[in-house]
Structures are given as C-alpha cells and as structure tokens.
Amino acid sequence: MYISDFNYHKPKTLKEALELLHKSDNGAPIAGGTDMLVELKQGLRQHQDIISLTNIEELKVINEDPDQLYIGAGTTHSEIIASDLIKKIYPVIAEAASKVGTAQIRNTGTLGGNLCTGSSCCDTAPVLIALGAGVEIANGSQLKIIPLKDFFIHNKQTMIKKGDIMTRIIVPKQASCVGAHYEKFGLREAASISVVSVAVMVQLKNNIINDACIVIGAVAPTAIISQRSTNVVKGKNVSELTENSTLLKRAGKAAAEDSVPIDDIRAGAQYRRDILNVLTQRAILRAIEKAESKCKN
Amino acid sequence: MKKIININVNGDNHEVAVRPGTTLLDLLRDELNLTGTKKGCELGDCGACTVILDGKAVNSCLVLALDADGKKVKTIEGLAGSKHLHPVQQAFVEKGAIQCGYCTPGMIMRVVSILDENPDPTKEEIKKALSGNLCRCTGYTKIIEAVEAAKAYINGMEQPEIEYQPQKSALDLSVVGKRLPKIDAPDKATGKALFTDDLAFPKMLYGKLLLSPLPHALIKSINTKRALALPGVKAIMTGDDVPDIKWGTSPPRYDENVLAKNKVRYVGDVVAAVAAVDEETCYKALQLIEVEYEELPAVFDPMEAMKEAAPRLFDDKYENNINTHIDHHFGDIDLGFAEADHIREERFVGNRTYQNPMEPHCSIAEWDNHGRVTLHTSTQVVHYVHHQLSRILNLPLGNIRVIMTYCGGGFGAKAATTTIEVMSCFLAKETGCPVKMRFNREEMYLFGRGRHKQYIDLKIGVKNDGTITAVKHKAILEGGAYSSFGIVSAYYAGSMLTTLYKFANYKYDGYRINTNLPPCGAFRGHGCPHPRFAFESLLSMIADDIGMDPIDIRLKNAMEPEYRTCNDLDIHSCEFTACLEDVKKKSHWDSKRGNLPKGRGIGIGCGGFVSGAGYPIYRSQFPHSNAIIKILEDGSKAMLYIGDADIGQGSDTVLAMAACEAMGITMDRISVVSADSDLTPIGFGAYSSRVTLMGGNACKMAGEEIKKQLLQAASEILNVDANILEAKDNKIYVKDKPEISIPWEDAGFAYFSNNGPLVGKGHYSPPKGLGGKYKGAAVGTSPAYSFSATVCEVEVDMETGKVKVLNFWDAHDCGTAINPMSAEGQAEGAVVMGMSEVLFENEVFDKNGKMLNADLHNYLIATSADMPEISSTLVDSYEPAGPFGAKEIGEGATLPILGALANAIANAIGVRIFELPITPEKVLKAIAEANKVNSDS
C-alpha cells in the first residue's frame, strides 16, 4: 500500500486553489483526506496534482443570515458538532455528523468531503436533503448552487466536475415548528457504515403536517427523497401518526417501496426494505416530537 | 520530489524533507524514529496510529505529512515526563489495561484527548468516545476502568479501592495471587516497547510477496525481467529459486511450498517475492512481474469439494479433497441412544473468522559473515519457527537465531511459521542485506489461518432426569487450500466435547475439507468453539424439551474431579459445579428465567480447554518448557531466561511471579528475557494455553533450585542448618525465629563469591503416556483442564433484529490465578472476542474466491461501544499439576461465550438461530418465520 507521487499545492485562498485546479490536467482538491487517502493508498485513484484545501480559512466558516445557514465545506464533522450556531438552528445536522465514522475521522473529515465522496451510505446527506439544503460550487470565477437532492448521480458519482470546488452548504431556515430527525442503522454500536438510514423533516401548523420531507439513505445508489412516504404524511394531523397507527405504517411501507436496495456484505435487499420501513416510522415519530417541542417553545 | 516542512512534535521543531505521499504516520515512524505510534491497518479503521494534531485526535495514517506542515503534533513519546508517567499512562499500567500493547499508544492518546475535551465523561460517553480505537485483547473492560481512574487522578478525586477476595489457594503466598501490573506495561504505555516493525537496521531492504489473483491455476511462466529492471529492486525470487521442500505446521500434512511450484490454490497464494530499497518500490515491482496462468476450475464449498467430480486441489493426495478424516467411537452410541428417553439432533453452522491481532506480522532477517541468520519476528512460537527454518534453510538450529520482539497479539494467527519469516531469510541471503517483510491488513487475512467454518450435525440423547446417555457428532471443517494446523483442529473439534459433561457413549466423525480459499488454522479455542456452541445450544434446547432448567441439566451432568472421559482424557481438578452455581447466583438466573419481557433473554453457556497440549506438534523428546535463572553477582537481581512467548497475555509477568514466589523475592528483583533462541532454552511457545502451567512449572523449578543453593549459602553465614531456613520477601530467615535473618541479596553475594555463578534450571514435561492408544488419542490430552460457565443477558430489537448484549456473568476454574488481574483480563477479552464472533464476524468471498472484506472496515470487530457489562469470578480451585495450583484461562474463557449468547438470543426472541454469525438480518428472518408458523397454526 503506497501513495503514488503527485505535485502538492497548498493555496491560501479559494481563488488560488481554483486556478491551480484549472491549470492541472488531472488535479484533485483534498480536504480532510479521510476518504481520499484511502482511495489513493488502494490505488483506486491517481492524481498529477493534489490541491490541499486545509489552509483556506474561507472554507471553514459557519455563519447565517436571516434566511439561511451557511456551513463552509471545509468544516470538519467535529466542528459541526461543536458549533453553537448549528446547535441552535439545526441540531439534527450535528446529530447526523456525530454518526460519521469515528472521533478521529470526524476530527479530520469535512462535510464537503463527505458529500463530494458521494457514497450512497453518506450520513450527512439525508438530513441536509430533508432540510432542503443546497451546495455552492465554485469553478474559476463561476459560482453556482445546486440543490443537494440533485447533487448525487450515483454511488460515488456527483455533479462535481473538473475544476469544481465545493465551497459552502446552504441550508434554508424553515418556518417555525420544524422538527427533523436522523435514524441510522449500522451493524455495530459505533464506527459502522449505514446499512439503512432515514432523515425526516416535518413542519407543523396547528397539529397538521404542513410540510415534510423524508429522505432515505443506503437503500439506493444515492440518498433519495421518498416521495411516497413524504406524501403519506403531508397534510395529515399528527394525531393520526402515532405508534402502530395505520398511517404511520403506511408511511413506513411507502418508504420501503421507494427504495431500490442491493444485496451486499452488510445486508440483503429485502432486509434493508424491512428495516427501512421500521426506521422510517421511528424517525417520523421522533421528528414530530421534536417539532412539537419546538412549537411549545 | 521532496518538500520541506516544519513540524513541531512533542515540543521539538523539526525541519524535514518529505515526499508528497508520505503520511504523518510514516513521517513520525520512519523519518523521526518515533515508533511508539503504531501502524495497524493503514486505512483509518483501527486507531492504533492516533496522535493529537493541533489539539485533536486524528488517525495519522490518513493525514498527509505535508498537510501537517506548521502544526503541532503530540505522540505517545511526548506524554510522560522524565520521571513520571502521565496520569493516563499510570492508570493504564495499574488497572491492567495493557495486554499486547499494540493498540495502547493510540488508545492512550485518544484518552488524553477525551479528557482534555471533557474532564468528567460518563462511562457511556467513554465507551462511545473510544470506539475508534480497536483492541483485540482486553475486551475494553480494564481500559474503561483505567480511563475512570485517570479521570480521578487528573481531577484529584479519591479512587475507590477494588474489592477483591483472594483465592484460598493463594492466601499464604507472597507474590502469586497478587493483582500486579504487568512488568512490560510501562514500556508499552510510553511507546518504548519495540515491536518488529519498529526496528530498522543499516542497509535494510524491504520485501513483499506477489499473491495469486486466481483461486486455482497452473503457473505457465513467470517473467521478472521488467520488475528486475526497476531501479531500487534488489532481488526477485520465484518457486524455482527456493528449495523444493514441503512445509507446514503438522508433519503428517506438510503440503505448502515456500513459493508456489507450478500451481496456485487460492487467491492469496504466494507466487514470488521481491526485495527492494523500500516498500513502494516493492509494490511497483510486483505489478511488473508477468505471470501467465492457466486457470483451473475452483471449489469453495466443502460439500461440493467432496463430490466425485469436484476439482482436486492436490492430485497426489487428499482424495475428494478430504484433507483429514476422523472416525472415533467410544462406548456404544446405539446402546446409549436406546437408553435415552429423549433424543434431539440438529445442524449448526459456524463462521469463518480471523484472529485480527492488532499488530500485523513482521519479520526481519539478517545473515552474518559466518553463515548464521538472525530473524526478528512477531511470533507466538519461537521454537517452531526455529525448527521449521532449520528444515527449510537446511541449517542446524545453532546457525539460526530467532528473536521474538514484543508481539502485538496472536490468538493463533502467529502460532506457526509464516511465509514472510521464511522469505525474509531467503531474500536477505540473496541480497546480503537485512530484509524486513510485513503483512498489511489485507495480506494478513489472505495468509489466513483463522477459524475453520464448521458444519455440525449433533445428536444428544438424555434420560428424563437429564442424564446424557449418548452423543453423536459429525463435523465438516472447511479448511481452505492447505493443512496448516487443520489436522489438529479437526481432532480437537471432536475430542474436547467430552471434558465438560460426563457421558460414556460418543461417536465423532470429522472431515476437514480443502477448498480454494485461504488456509484455516488455530484460532483461540482451536477447533472447539463451534462444536461447543452447538453442544451448549442443543443441551439448552433439550432442557426446554424435557422441561428442565438449562443450568440444572448442566449440573446433572457436570464433570467432576479425577474422572477419565470416554475418550481417555484424565480430568484432575474440576470446579465446574462451583462455576455453574456462581453464575446462576450472581446473574439472578432464577428470578430472570421465564420472567423477562419479550425481546429480552438470558442464556447459559459453558466451556473449558486444555492447559497445554500433552504432546508437541512434531515428535520431540525435549521438555516442553525450560527456564534458567541467573542471579547477579551482588544478589540484587534475578534474570529469568524463558523460551515461552509473551504475546500480550502477560506470560513474562506470570512466569516471573512464579519464579519470585519460588525464590522468595519480590517482583522488583527480577528481569525477564524471553523467547530468544540464542539466550533462552527452548519453550514450545504460546499456543494451546500451555504457558502458565508448563512455563510456570519450569520457572518454579528453576526458582526452587536457586532457593536451595541460596539457603545453603545462608546457612553457612548464619551458622545454622539449611533445613530450618526459609526464603520469603527478600529475606532468608530461620523458620521458627524469623528475627534471625539475612537479606536475600547477601546470601546471593556470598554464594557467588565462594562458588561462582548462581544458576537455577527448570524444565517441564507433561506426564508420560497421557491419553488413550487409539489413532489421534494425543489431541485433547493435557496435564489439566479448565472449566468455565457464563450467563448472558441480551436485549433484541424485535423490529430490526439488532442484538444488544447487556451482561455477561462468568466464572472460571483456572486453578490458582497466578495474577488475578491478568486472568480477569483474559476472561474479559474472551467475552468480547467471542461476542464479536457471534454477532459481527465473517469472512466473505466473491464467486471467484476473492475475499470481499479483508480489512477492518467491512470485517467488523467489536468496539468499546459494543462492550457489555462483564462480571468475572475466579472460583477457588487448586490443580496439583500446575505451579502453585494454576491452570489455563486464555482459551477456555472463549468457549462458553458463543453458546451463552446464542441461548440468550433464542430465549429473547423465542426461536433458535443455528448459523453464525447471528446477524440482525437472520434474527429478523427467524422472528418473521416464527410469527408465520404461529399465525398459520
């Protein structure tokens, strides 16, 4: 196991990084490196130029304006977990970040890196999609925003193109009474890869689910919105969505129907469907609970 | 091209030139010689390389050195002051949190960072926070205790005293029976302990193996021209360049080539070896070696492999790929089953698991100019490596020196000679330079020698009162491509079923089958865990069938002292009943059994093992363990030379304790030199749980010889008869008048002055003629047997099938525990390893025999977050054959875990799972099927 030679660059500004990337035939940006170094060591990728983003402070900022929360793509998972701002606005993002890998990985790996790796079992994507997040991508002097739900193409394939650097994750602030929850099922208690995951966002208005989004992970080539289960809960009174209620079960089943899981060494496709059903129901209940407690405050 | 970076490590500024691909880990280890930071997986899964980078714990294997430019790094070497250990290090030493020590530096750095972030974490927080640091030895129990102790040290809080009731057999002893820190713990806690990969020699080259990409193929040609032309490549060897000699582990089945001759038999079989200036060049050279293969049909399933038309792995032997067949019949099972009131037969299937010691195998060979080779290696069995090298290199033992460095765990993975031990010698000879070879984690799995997957048909007959009348056992062991230990594994699978319960009629049919997969070997509990899992499962099912409590049926049949089993194994000390009663009581079995809510369950499992194999692996008349003690001329220190190997289980400490007790000195007066074939007399090494009993007896004998000579010297000084003297606690005194005494060292000094060197010798051989006369009767014989019982409680998520293990209450008859803290450490480690095997572990292969999870990312082992509460008891017991009454615990402690956990799960969900591992998927499926049956009926 070794890493093939490359030219290393460590720019201090985003502009410089974009220029370096533009100039290179086969360059890649590296953030925390926790996925990238594994792939380099395993010989799964080779690059002539590697542009380290570790010194670019503008990629590490977490801030807000009245409408949106901005998380720099170079923010580590640990920084997200520790951020008071994120805790205040969307603690669920911190909860999802805390499910990524191990403490050591979270201390190094970045949110942008996690998304750009584009793994189908990515832990941060489902929640961010459920919250309607977008990702800001720079290329040369261009800056574009892609809704995260459209960012993933296939497992390990994203909309990132040559010369692109993800700069920020932008999460719109929702109206009041929003609750979101992330459920992850791994084979051991910690440091495990998601076998199934689900993120649920609900927004309540007079006990009615005014808006919702249910995103399922590790059960399709990318995290996807389960439109059917979202539709099942939208517009319903929360009193219909209690443990073992017919509606809740319908929502779980609908999520399973939207999934297209595969058999792999972690689990079979049917099992994934079965527990997606269960996890979805649990996540809906928890999301409603959280929304209700927010409404009270 | 290299770039200059400035990095501050442990307060020192370094200006270093590094290549772009250099990781922080390699920078620390290779450039700065800070080898305390360990390389366990290289992919960020194990945490052994954890350092603190700008205040945060990171995996240094996943950080580019160039990205650490301008940053501050803290490593294990920077933690302790010149005089004092850091409180975390101190706590790890005192609490017995260190076994092999390979995960320790990373673990300690992580703990330091946890306590920096939160000085008062709860136990649950600690368990979660440590989950990125894998440990295979300790079961995390004592590590968590150490973190809590460290927390108290740092916060200046009082430490609660450990309540420990010494065993009766140790009450009158001074050293044996005490909870002492391991003597190597401070070195392991500070990163000073050197493992093989931490060593480097002038002009040292690196070696790597070319592994077969195909499961079964003929080698038509090998072209090494392009590889040899690569700058930096010093030698390439193929099957043509090494002697035509077969080797392996057990002599009747030597069937491995040093490098493949004409044929490869699994993905991972060794085709060629390369030596070059660094590992990177080796890897590049491997890609340039052109091998032309003619692919042959392969077979992976043992049932398929036995069929007439199946592809054969060996043309000249093992007909129908049957590597070993055993047909044993003791008593009369027809009669036995005829006497039974109830008979049940079931099929159980085990899993293919790998030991995963945290330290990857590593060897360094160097030849001197007199035709002598020295091998530093990470092994459990210096003597067997020595013996095998002598055969393969065609040299007398005296021209080979094998030195075991600190060894980062083995569990059987390092219990026989490896290809890199052999090939580093050949490459070093070929190049005239020292050659280091190491496995990466994937190569460890492919070299294999893990647990055989067993398919077991077990039938037990009982009377209405639970008395076992007959047992019929058929096991098919999937063995992989070569024999390794397999013949022994297959015998053990059968022979050891008889040691726990008394029954007179027993039939065992054992088959070990070759397949085109990595060879299986000896893994903790050698061959026995799967049959024991089957037996304990079936016995509990039968108890349910006949309306008997599962513990009662065990008590009914429980082994007793001085019993000869139906297959001629002699049980001497046996406190099995005490173990059962202890776990029954402390688990509150009676109040829980049948009263737990759905999804919660409780189960019992039992186990036991040999305290050392009665016979060596190859025919030999040498005593199995041998010790020499040399007293320094001023009497200030005893040097213990012992051939047996401390692989982390703590044998150096335990053997030193036995020697100290025998000599009458305290532990600060002894140093241990172990497992160096030039310095230490032969010891068969660390396998079959033999070291405490056999090495312990040798050390005790050597110590007694010292004492005898010393008492004589003292008698001349005191002018009394030597017979009335005693040595204890560094004094020699008159037994009846302890006030008449001289310091121990004064007697040593006087002895040396008058007589020259004071040396004691000790040796141990098992009693002659152990076991019966039938073929294979040797396997399972031992001077003594351990016993254990455990109760497990689980909670199962009935909707997802996920099992959470809540508790293990275990009790062990290990005779006198020489060091109870170490013995508990073995038991706790066995619990978590056994649990991990039941719930998580399984090697998976694609349809072409390529392993899909040869890493620690996809092959899961238990983390600290998975750890249950463990309550271990060492029952009162005394084994006459053992030193101070001691016998084994290391392997026996694994055996009850599988069955107990399986029984607890069955109890929780109301349905039985017969195949390991018991994954959530299988649990959910079983629940669904049971529900279907219930609703249909």
How are the SSEs placed, and which strands pair?
The complex is a heterodimer of chains A (297) and B (937).
Chain A: E1 7-9, H1 14-23, E2 27-30, H2 36-41, E3 49-52, E4 62-64, E5 68-72, H3 77-82, H4 84-89, H5 91-97, H6 103-108, H7 111-117, H8 125-130, E6 134-139, E7 142-147, H9 148-151, E8 152-154, E9 157-158, E10 165-172, E11 178-185, E12 196-205, E13 208-217, E14 224-225, H10 227-233, H11 246-258, H12 269-296
Parallel strand pairs in A: 1-3, 2-3
Antiparallel strand pairs in A: 4-5, 5-10, 6-7, 6-10, 8-9, 11-12, 12-13, 13-14
Chain B: E1 3-9, E2 12-18, H1 24-31, E3 50-53, E4 56-59, E5 72-74, H2 87-94, H3 104-117, H4 123-129, H5 141-155, H6 185-190, E6 205-211, E7 217-223, H7 225-229, E8 233-238, E9 246-247, E10 256-257, E11 263-264, E12 270-276, H8 279-288, E13 290-295, H9 302-305, E14 322-330, H10 333-339, E15 342-349, E16 362-367, E17 373-377, H11 382-393, E18 400-404, H12 419-431, E19 435-438, H13 441-447, E20 453-462, E21 468-478, H14 486-495, E22 506-513, H15 529-545, H16 550-557, E23 563-564, E24 570-571, H17 576-586, H18 589-592, E25 600-607, E26 625-631, E27 638-642, H19 651-663, E28 670-674, H20 691-718, E29 725-728, E30 731-734, E31 741-743, H21 744-755, E32 758-764, E33 787-796, E34 803-813, H22 820-839, E35 869-874, H23 895-909, H24 920-936
Parallel strand pairs in B: 1-5, 6-19, 17-18, 21-22, 27-28, 34-35
Antiparallel strand pairs in B: 1-2, 3-4, 3-5, 6-12, 7-11, 7-13, 8-12, 9-10, 14-22, 15-20, 16-17, 16-19, 20-21, 23-24, 25-33, 26-27, 26-32, 29-30, 30-31, 33-34
